[in-house]
Amino acid sequence: MTHVDGLARCGVLETPHGVxxxxxxxxxxxxxxxxxxxxxxxxxxxxxxxxxxTYHLMLxxxxxxxxxxxxxxxxxxxPAPILTDSGGYQVYSLRTRRTIDEDGxxxxxxxxxxxxxxxxxxxxxxxxxxGSDIAMSFDECTPYPVTRDEARRSMELTARxxxxxxxxxxxxxxxxxPAMVTNPGQLQFGIVQGSTFADLRQESAQKxxxxxxxxxxxxxxxxxxxxxxxxxxxxxxxxxxPKDRPRYLMGVGTPANLVEMVARGxxxxxxxxxTRNGRNGQLFTRTGTINVKGAxxxxxxxxxxxxxxxxxxxxxxxxxxxxxxxxxxxxxxxxNSLHNLHFYLDTMKRIGEAIVLGTFETFRQAFQxxxxxx
Amino acid sequence: MTHVDGLARCGVLETPHGVxxxxxxxxxxxxxxxxxxxxxxxxxxxxxxxxxxTYHLMLxxxxxxxxxxxxxxxxxxxPAPILTDSGGYQVYSLRTRRTIDEDGxxxxxxxxxxxxxxxxxxxxxxxxxxGSDIAMSFDECTPYPVTRDEARRSMELTARxxxxxxxxxxxxxxxxxPAMVTNPGQLQFGIVQGSTFADLRQESAQKxxxxxxxxxxxxxxxxxxxxxxxxxxxxxxxxxxPKDRPRYLMGVGTPANLVEMVARGxxxxxxxxxTRNGRNGQLFTRTGTINVKGAxxxxxxxxxxxxxxxxxxxxxxxxxxxxxxxxxxxxxxxxNSLHNLHFYLDTMKRIGEAIVLGTFETFRQAFQxxxxxx
Lengths: 374, 374
Hints:
The structure is a homodimer.
Chain A (H helix, E strand, L loop, with lengths): L2 E3 L2 E8 L2 E5 L1 E3 L12 H7 L4 E3 L1 H6 L3 H6 L3 H5 L5 E3 L3 H7 L3 E3 L4 E4 L6 E4 L1 H11 L3 E3 L11 H27 L12 E6 L5 H14 L3 E4 L8 H13 L7 E3 L5 H9 L4 E3 L2 H7 L2 E4 L2 E4 L19 H5 L2 H9 L3 H28 L2 H12 L3
Parallel strand pairs in A: 4-14, 5-6, 6-10, 10-11, 11-12, 12-13, 13-14
Antiparallel strand pairs in A: 1-2, 2-3, 7-8, 8-9, 15-16
């Protein structure tokens, strides 16, 4: 870490395709593209790293095809860092379409119903073929709510899977077969589970640290728990993770969440909110959200977020964005998503600057106060 | 005109929002946005003028609302020239939903079925409120095929409507009411009809010239006639139009069409092909079209059009574009449309350069020969 302010930290993560400055927000490019956004706009917005989903890519176009194209960076035309998840969360979302056993997960593709299988070894191999800069260990995303016994069982399964993921990862690293390993410098992050039980989180953190990864993630949150549970669980988990490695909170969250999580020692985030909500007309602003669908904006010639410097806010009115949305124009989704990604990435930048200046607590209070103004 | 090479011409059209260099291709921004393409990308591609559809905008968001926003340029955030059509062609496309009489057209909105009416006066007023730089006179787009008698009847109706359109236009110009006229420097183009009958085209050109517009358009083509009929009709019509004014062929066409039409004295074009076909996976290249849907491209790591300098071709492979198309990602439409618009606008630029150099005929032959290579 380069700067620390309370529990909030700034750091630099080195990857084979460049550095990532933390705290970092990773736009989600599920199928190898952020929905509605061109790569060059992501670069312009200051995105240093993109997340892509192993589950989606293994099914379509297939990890073999991507490996033959020279790996995910070349296939996508994205030269900067990429993090791939392990597929665990997507498989968890399938619910009725999957069965879990000690060895791994059987599931049916959401695309064609075909039978598929993921194990810690296979999830690791697929990510090796994709050649992402950061691979995630294969975990079971514990559902919420869950009994303590079930949370323990699930957490222990994730720990065993973490060992197997790491073992396979190290084996591939030690004898790199170009047909299997696209990016020899790939890093692998372990994932802590344990639901909202602080002691299970502590135990999980210890087990996953014992396996030994380049860095660690907090999984199993943003699955229905309350905001207080999210904050407390992430905070306690972060406290048990190494101080000198980035901590990645998976799938979180709103702008307010990001600021609170940095305040509790988290460094990396990914979330579909800026793009998904943008497609639904919702814009994040410093004073809360607005939805441009609203009839009240039909003749509102103000920018979505006065004072925002993004392309959308510099050039377009709420009335125009509403018109594009109502007319079902693709550019509605693109302009809304551009603004939202700008807001997220700019928020991370402002957080980072405040940490460097040692004024993070002041920033945090001002940020949260402004959000509640609307 | 600044340069002439055979019948092909280069010129500069001055409008209140800037100059347009001809020959010019106008991307179609039906509802106030080119589908899937941001304005800044259009500027980067070298588009100097956009077309917008009066029919769509009068229904949604409404010309009154756009006028209150300060006109179409301000509403859309597009500071460059805009041409609006008169609504005649869209009403023609409605077929079963409209009835035509001497005074105008009754039709039902495709959006909500509401009863609407367009007359030459009303189409002119709506365009005055929109404040486009170039308004079109209200015409009847003669269907194809049609009997000679029917073509004459329709052509004569269009001539009477042209007189009424111009009369209303001049009245608005002479006593500009800010509530009615958003852009006092607006130009108005007349439209020649006459189906594929050369003598009717000549007669129509004479009638429309007698009305007196800033420039003239060739309407009623690209409605089902053969390519030979298109070329011959446009050529004969162009020959009857003033030499010192741009000639605009409405709704045409393929890249090959554009080159052949410039060779016959046409200066301006609009067409949905680059964007509509882009959304369907079809890419225009110097050696013909390809459709990235094709399974044959699944592992084709070549750019869509080797040698093309557009953003899409410089960064992405056919395999990636196919993947985005198959995955129904919006960026598929955007990247394909970007390439196609680049191809169209670049073709116009190359045509213009050849005319200036006096090598247009050589360019034309090489262009058409390359197209047939695939």
